[in-house]
Write a structure and sequence with these properties.
This protein is of the alpha/beta class. Helix content is 47%, strand content 14%. It has 10 helices and 4 strands, in the order βαβαβαβααααααα. The protein has helices spanning 12-24, 40-53, 71-78, 97-101, 104-111, 128-137, 142-148, 160-170, 174-178, 182-193; strands at residues 3-9, 29-36, 59-64, 87-92. It has a 4-stranded parallel β-sheet, with helices on both faces. Helix 1 runs parallel beside helix 8. It is globular and about 55 Å long.
């Protein structure tokens, strides 16, 4: 039997990652509704309300750690209420982009750089988004540079999300990525072990 689940997420990258993750686990999930897509602060401000809604429908929440010292700080600060058993709250260390870098073999090939240029410890990268952009600058593939490297005052390339969506949905090996990312491994375990409690 499949589990219908709502997502509360920061952006398009999170959506693509969770779409792939939910299709990979042993449990069968169907995405019901998508909330957020407005950054991290929206999730923080609306989390209590969505936690209440989770009493009636399961939720998966994903946020980036960013420059916060450790995940526990976010957990203690944001979840300052009784969390519903139907709300899965996960944190990507330090950004969800690090989970892509964790599949070093496929990511290096996709990016057009040698594997030795891809960090072996992706969760220690302070700014994974900037790290990926800098990798793109060294790419042998012109399209990777055009898609990912920003121009002018832009912070990311014009096709940043589309390019990384291609990697996520068509090339990303979650099994390999989990071996290099504890926060990704924790997400996948939580999804596999989740038991929906109907109220």
């Amino acid at each position: 039997m499949s589990i219908s689940i709502n997502l509360l997420i920061e952006d398009e990258l999170h959506l693509n990652i969770l779409t792939k993750a939910l299709s990979f686990v042993n449990q069968k999930y169907i995405i019901n509704r998508i909330f957020g897509m407005r950054g991290k602060n929206y999730i923080k401000d609306s989390l209590r309300a969505h936690n209440q809604a989770a009493t009636h429908h399961p939720y998966l929440v994903l946020v980036d750690l960013d420059n916060v010292e450790c995940p526990l700080i976010i957990i203690e600060s944001w979840l300052n209420f009784t969390k519903s058993d139907n709300l899965l709250f996960r944190i990507a260390v330090r950004e969800a982009e690090s989970w892509l870098v964790s599949d070093r073999d496929n990511f290096s090939f996709f990016m057009g750089v040698s594997k030795d240029k891809v960090d072996q410890y992706p969760e220690k990268i302070l700014d994974p988004k900037e790290y990926i952009i800098n990798l793109a600058r060294k790419s042998r593939k012109r399209k990777i540079k055009e898609d990912l490297v920003p121009e002018g005052r832009a912070t990311v390339g014009r096709n940043y999300n589309t390019c990384l969506a291609d990697f996520i949905l068509n090339h990303w090996d979650l099994k390999k990525a989990m071996t290099n990312s504890k926060s990704l491994e924790h997400l996948m375990k939580a999804l596999n072990n989740f038991n929906y409690r109907r109220n």
